[in-house]
Amino acid sequence: MDFTLYIKFFLGLVAIINPVGLLPVFVSLTSHQTEPERNQTAKVANIAVVVILLVTIFAGQHILNMFSISLSAFRIAGGTLIAIIAMSMLQGKLGEVKRNKEEVGESSAMESVAVVPLALPLMAGPGAISSVIVFAAENNTWVNLAGMSAAVVVFGLLSFLLFRMASVIYKILGKTGINVITRLMGLIMLSIGIEVIAAGFKGMFPSLIG
C-alpha cells in the first residue's frame, strides 16, 4: 500500500473542499438551528459527502466509459474547473462556480440544508468530484481504491469535527483568519489543477510534450 499516495489524495480533498473556508457558510446556513440540530446537520452533510465521493471513486471511470470520454480529456476539463474554483478562493470567495444566486435564494428558504446546498454542491462540488474521478482512474487497483476510500472516511470525520466546533473556530479565527486559510487552500488547489491539466495535455499529445 502506497501511503504517500493516500496522504496526497487526502490533502487534495482538504484543499479542494476546504472545510475551514466553509465554516462561515455553515454557521450562516444553520443560524436558525439549535445546537443539537446544528450537530445533526453537520453529521448528515458529511455522511452525504462521504457517500458521494465513495460512489465517485468506484463509478467515475465507468461513467467516463459510458460517454466515451477519455481520461486525458477529463483531466483537462476537471483541471480547468479546479483552477477556476481556486482563482475564486484566492480572492477570498466561494464563487458562483460552487453556488449560484438562485441556489443561495433557495437555501435560505430550506429547513434542512445538510444535503443541499451544503454537501452538494458546496462540499462535494464539481471540483472535488473531478479530482476524485481523475485520481481513482489513475490508481485503479483494488488496494488503492480501498486506501482512497479510507482517506475519504477520515476526511468526513475530520470535517464533521470541524463543523461541530464551527462557532468556536469562527470566533477564534475571525473573518480575516478564515479568508487567509481560504487563500492558502486556493493556492494549493490551483497547483493541483495545473498539474491535472498538464497531465491531460501530455496524455492527449504525447509526441508534442516529452
From TrEMBL:
Q: Keyword check for Flavoprotein, yes or no.
A: no
Per its UniProt record, what Pfam families does this chain match?
MarC
Bilayer topology annotation: Multi-pass membrane protein
Give the subcellular location: Cell membrane
Q: What is its main location?
A: membrane
Q: Which family does it belong to?
A: Belongs to the UPF0056 (MarC) family.
Keyword Mitochondrion among UniProt keywords? no
Report what the protein is called. UPF0056 membrane protein
Recorded superkingdom? Bacteria
Segments passing through the bilayer: 6-29, 41-60, 72-92, 113-136, 142-163, 184-205
Annotated keywords:
Cell membrane, Membrane, Transmembrane, Transmembrane helix
